[in-house]
Design goal:
The protein is α/β, with parallel strands linked by helices. It has one domain: 3-Layer(aba) Sandwich (Rossmann fold). Helix content is 27%, strand content 24%. It has eight helices and 13 strands. Strands 8-9-5-4-1-2-3-13-12 form a nine-stranded mixed sheet, sandwiched between helices. A two-stranded antiparallel sheet has the order 6-7. It has a two-stranded antiparallel sheet with strand order 10-11. Strand 12 and strand 13 form a beta hairpin. Helix 2 runs parallel beside helix 8 and helix 4 crosses helix 6. The longest helix is centred in the first third of the chain and has 14 residues. The protein is globular, with a radius of gyration of 19 Å. The chain binds S-adenosylmethionine. The site of S-adenosylmethionine has 21 residues, from strand 2.
Length: 297
């Protein structure tokens, strides 16, 4: 099992959904992401894992899947998601660290990670955890923030930005906020056991004055037209990749979902505290949310 995992960008108590999305003037980005997801999601699926689910903004978009497990390190984000989606058999709310996923191997046939790789100081470790819990041939949709975007290229060429958008190392522009180079992400995915099947570039017009002057429908329509150019070159601020889990996966125990994030032993499941009979830890279940956070960094 993993130990000494990287620090987490903590959203506990944050009003991210309200401040950034509901009142943050990002209707265009939200609509562009919805189009990209529609184009990449499989037509049908069993169990979807949403990594860094936040307040559940994207979760209703996974309607082709029978069940969805929402993972976020922040319990308060999950409480917002639970209040939005409701408590029912379709959703499983899990407070956990992506670097230490509390699920058995090979459990999910679908996964998404939207606007969350952005916070990963060790992307290969994070993606390897995702790969571990996915079934072979499962579909994983990864969004990443692209350091080689047109604005960064322009600023660099005009001498207004010190870092190069053309080199492969990530740029940490604020604490635990990373933009990645598309070639580097391809390498991370390969190392973790994923193959890119399709790539879309998204949010080409993420510029304040365009968003203010051009009607939302026209801007999203133009974005929809440009998204497929992502197959050739990626110079938009956001990139969506449809990835396939390649190679063998561990076989999911038929009736098991959870394993101890510390020692890896199977946990009983059911709507109750999860007691690990191997290492003796108890993982709390409260108000519809399982809590597998090893330490609350
Ligand atoms: C920018 S928000 C995106 C939320 C949602 N995917 C969306 O697009 O609306 C990033 C989310 O990732 C979560 N997060 C960051 N690091 C994490 C980690 N190591 N494990 C689990 N969740 C994490 C944060 O708590 C936050 O809710």
């Amino acid at each position: 099992m993993t130990s000494n995992t990287p620090p987490v960008c903590n959203y506990e108590g944050s009003e991210y959904q309200k401040d950034f999305w509901d009142e943050g003037g990002r209707a265009y980005e939200d609509a562009a992401e919805e189009i990209a997801l529609k184009r990449l999601l499989p037509g049908v699926g069993n169990f979807m894992l949403e990594l860094g689910a936040g307040a559940g903004r994207n979760t209703p978009r996974y309607k082709n899947f029978k069940r969805v497990a929402l993972v976020d390190f922040s319990r308060t984000q999950l409480e917002q998601a639970r209040d939005l989606l409701g408590l029912n058999q379709r959703y499983v709310f899990v407070a956990a660290d992506i670097y230490r996923l509390p699920f058995v191997d090979g459990r999910f046939d679908g996964a998404t990670m939207i606007r969350t790789l952005h916070h990963m100081a060790d992307p290969v470790l994070a993606l390897s955890q995702v790969r571990r819990v996915m079934a072979s041939e499962g579909v994983f949709i990864l969004e990443f923030a692209n350091k080689r975007n047109l604005k960064a290229i322009g600023r660099y060429l005009l001498g207004r930005q010190a870092w190069s958008p053309f080199t492969e190392e990530p740029v940490e522009f604020a604490d635990l906020n990373f933009d990645f180079h598309p070639r580097a992400v391809r390498r991370y995915l390969d190392q973790a056991g994923f193959e890119i099947a399709k790539q879309l570039t998204v949010s080409h017009f993420r510029v304040g004055f365009l968003k203010r002057r051009i009607p939302l429908k026209i801007l999203t329509g133009l974005d929809a037209l440009l998204q497929p150019t992502g197959a050739l070159i990626q110079v938009s601020p956001s990139v969506f990749s449809k990835c396939i889990a390649v190679g063998d996966s561990g076989t999911a125990e038929e009736d098991h979902l959870f394993q101890c994030p510390v020692c890896g032993s199977l946990l009983p499941g059911g709507e109750m505290d999860q007691v690990c009979h191997e290492c003796g830890r108890t993982w709390e279940y409260r108000d519809g949310i399982y809590d597998f956070r090893v330490d609350q960094k």
